[in-house]
Amino acid sequence: MSPYLVLPFLVLALLFAASGLAGVARGWVLPSNRRHVRNPRLYGWGQLAVAFALCWQAFFGLLVDDSDVRLWATLTGGLVLIAALAVMLMGQLRRPRP
């Protein structure tokens, strides 16, 4: 992976991490997402996991020379990214009414 691709990944991961930390710590969500998010803390954990997955893929895509390790590590990062998106989706679902 080229360094020109890694830098936008890291900037995007930093933005996701900042937003996720605000969601976990304070329950704050970006104004464009407030209407959709029902559980801000769970949504924040999902955003932190997305940031981790993006950093994971950028790290192994750039710094690892072994093709087998790079393949399995980026595949793992992709699976973590899908799981994180599922957690974010769960944060948008309505809570069941008693």
What does this structure look like?
With 98 residues, the protein is mainly alpha-helical. Helix content is 76%, strand content 0%. It contains three helices and no strands.
Helix content: over 70%
Radius of gyration: 15 Å
> What class, by secondary structure content?
mainly alpha
How many E strands? 0
The N- to C-terminal Cα distance equals 50 Å
Largest sheet: none
SS element count, helices: 3
What is the residue-averaged pLDDT? 89
What pattern of helices and strands is seen along the backbone? HHH
Strand content: under 5%
Form type: elongated
Low-pLDDT windows of residues: none
Task: Please tag this protein with its features.
98 residues; mainly alpha
